[in-house]
Amino acid sequence: MRKIIAALQVSVDGFIEGTKGELDWVTSWEDEFDLGPEIDACILGGGMYPGYEQYWMSILANPDGILEFTGRPATKGEREYAKFAEKTPHYVVSRTLKKTHWSVADIVADLSRIQALKREPGKNMHLVGGATLVSSMINENLVDELRLVVNPVILGDGKALFKDVKDRHSLKLQAVKQLTSVNVRLTYALEAAEGYV
Length: 197
Prior knowledge:
Elements: E1 4-11, E2 15-17, E3 39-45, H1 49-61, H2 76-86, E4 90-93, E5 105-108, H3 111-119, E6 124-129, H4 131-139, E7 145-151, E8 159-160, E9 171-178, E10 184-190
Parallel strand pairs: 1-6, 1-7, 3-4, 3-6, 4-5
Antiparallel strand pairs: 2-8, 7-10, 9-10
């Protein structure tokens, strides 16, 4: 069975955004998770997908331009990821989003389609976010692994990654890797909720 790997950037105190959606503390959106060779699909929530699509499409349209979202040009790794994303199927879980501008994106109404995809042949899938979808999929025991790039910042408040997780889950540490002089990647195997049958 394919694994679903939730891989996200987080602050030291477990937030993925500041109180006003600030993401200026993330230095790069390139694949610091080393997922590229392992995956052949991405899963996103409908709330985060429009911004995700706009960001990567803007890099594809003007690889050397200044990005509105970050105020800087794309890094080499971000340009590589944009090319990868452009040809990789994306499943957007949403009951409200009606269309996407990317031909590789397919809107799915609920998690039953994700459960079916997990049983199909293929490589692993990257659960990109957002926090609500990650929590929902953890609650349904669909997430097999967490890869968290921990950024050296304490936000104090904001959007907590695991705010809506209902039950206790045990994590088994798989790897710790220092990525830069400041960022660390933690990889955990995620077990089913305790008491889950």
